Amino acid sequence: MPVDDSDSPFEFPCRFPIKVMGRNAPAFEQLVVEAVRLHAGSVAASDVTTRPSRNGRYLAVTVTFDAVSRDQVDAIYRILSSSEQVLFLL
User: CB of 64 within 8 A of CB of 15?
Assistant: First the structure.
């Protein structure tokens, strides 16, 4: 059942950044980007930023994409939050 976007603090469509944190593993960035691509289509390299933690054990990946609805954003959050590699989502 679609979510009513009128109760959302965002006006869709909009540019939406999603920040995901996990252990700094070779495939972590790809996992995040693929989850966004699944629901948002192509993601340009310029829309992806990464930042390792001070000790390098963790990695923050931010993907900014064109969000068209709250359902779309919720679907991306569901995929990412179900991954054992994801420690934190913003």
Answer: yes
Domains, the chain, ordered by start: 5-89 (3.30.70.260)
Instruction: Confirm whether pTM is higher than 0.85.
Output: yes
Are the C-beta atoms of 87 and 60 separated by less than 8 Å? no
Q: What is the pLDDT of residues 33-42, one digit of tens each?
A: 999 999 999 9
Buried/exposed 62-78: b ≥16 CB within 10 Å, e otherwise: bbbbebbbbbbbeebbe
Please check the confidence at residue 27 and state whether its pLDDT lies above 80.
yes
